[in-house]
Amino acid sequence: MLFTSTKFWEYPCTPYIIGLINRNCYLLRMKRNLSLLLLLIFTASCIPTEDQIQNIFDDHWEYRLQTNPLFATNQGDHRYDDRLPQSDLDFLEDDYFQTQEFLARLNGISVDDLDETDRMNYDIFRLQLENSAHAYEHNDHLLPLNGWWDYHATFADLANRMPLNSAEDYDNYLSRLGEFPEYNAGYIERMEKGLELGIVRPRVVFDDYVASVEAHITGSAEEHNLFEPFEDFPSGIEEEDRERLRSEGKRIIEEVVVPEFERLRNFLVNDYIPGSAEPIGITGIEGGEEYYEYLIATYTTLDLTAEEIHQTGLDEVARIRDEMMEIVESEGFGDDFDGFVEFLRTDPQFYAESPEELMKETAFVLKTMDGKLPELFKTLPRLPYGIMPVPDYLAPRTATAYYSRGAADGTRAGFYAVNTYDLQSRPLYEVTALSLHEAVPGHHLQIALQQELEDLPDFRTVAGFTAYTEGWALYSERLGMEVGMYDDPYQDFGRLSYEMWRALRLVVDTGMHAMNWTRQEAIDYMAENSALSLHNIRSEVNRYIFWPGQALAYKMGEIKIRELREMAEEELGRDFDLREFHDVVLTSGAVPLEVLENNVLNWIEGQ
What we know:
Elements: H1 6-9, H2 14-23, H3 25-31, H4 34-43, H5 49-67, H6 69-74, H7 89-107, H8 116-137, H9 151-156, H10 167-178, H11 180-197, H12 211-214, H13 239-272, H14 288-300, H15 306-330, H16 337-346, H17 355-370, H18 373-376, E1 385-389, E2 401-404, E3 414-418, H19 431-438, H20 443-452, H21 458-461, H22 466-479, H23 489-514, H24 519-529, H25 534-546, H26 552-572, H27 578-586, H28 593-606
Parallel strand pairs: 1-3
Antiparallel strand pairs: 2-3
Helix pairs in contact: 2-7, 7-8, 10-13, 11-13, 15-23, 17-19, 19-22, 19-23, 22-26, 23-24, 23-26, 24-25, 26-28
């Protein structure tokens, strides 16, 4: 703290003054301007507590927009469309101190003066700041790769993540392409520091990783996906500008961008992968046990141990296995689970013959679900969604599907990406559950609706508590049962297989990261208890090794949502309204599970 005088801290406007000091602390650290500091103190006037906390929210939001230009663009703020975020160690240290300063400003707020809504916002904001600070303290920033839209893959998708409607937009695009060396250098610097400290990812997950980088090392600019915007300009751009922009785009891609992808490839091959860790568990690195505890708490928002989650997983696996066996028996396989799974894995009727067929089946499921949404929901988002294949450079090593959120200003739809690589690993009986999870009523419905909520602070519209968002999406798979989406036993077995998949995660993630399981033990356990293809199982196990803790959020979040619904149904009886319940769950946006429980309890009491 800058002042320790008792008289100063007893000054009646102290909370607001502290806020002003910390609000400008990043400037004061640079300029050391004592006169400015004193001016802030003596010109400060008291304002209501709710205005103080809103000022903190607004300041932090502006800080996020300024320091993460890609995030700003996605929020419809185009002031920084010509920049990439800073990624180096010095910036991350400054960002950590800035987080501490925002926390200090929060400490100046009298929470007793806040109403229920502001107190919820305060608690969620504090938790996000604390998680950010703890991540830095656990050296999370030295492990920037997790195999899921890593920074180089996100950069390679830049043309789809910013507006390209005018010559000015294209100039911004060129500027961002030109900043890739500095952006890339920051991430490499962090990985080099990780190597120095022994904080590295396991070697086993890099078997096919380098290909995701090499896909962007092309012989000419025209072959690069980042050149695509220069092939087809919007009609409003003059021919003279087109020639200039195309020429500059070709130069930057060939002379700047491609060499940087080569630099990253060479660093991974020559330094990072040879220096990567042999143990697959995160607890095998320096500080790994405490780090895994942090990851569990962050991703689940629950106070649970790895052992408790492991046991929950074992219990869920047993329950779901019993439900799966009912279908196995009803289809004439008796108690031969393995035989039924082999039938599903090998019979041609369950597999698309072309990527187009898989996409059509997906589209049919989603259009059917679109028509049933009003039966389940009072409030629906305005933003549309589309479906697309997973890009070729990601498909071999990424998940079966994923969702990409749309732009907050409505200029870009949400997209559900379907993996059409290796069609024998994409059974049609899983399409319904997968599509409900990723699009509607799962990720798209929840995230797009959250983006459109008007009575929340800005930071709440983008909050992403994984246990809530993934728990909701898994819960959404089950909602299909209530509107007749699983119209044959194979589709229902696919649903159960996906639920089993998420239960298995609780067992194998904790098994590998806290109980010394080997990778093969995890693969065998998943193969014995699910109908997932072996390709998917291997990819998923690698994902859990690469990204510890994240996979725990799905099932833990879904269990909590189902518990809350069952409680509400029991308490309210005939007065229970499913559409109202879903409104309570969704219209506060993503929240920690404890906050969600309080929201539902308050709703029940209000009924």
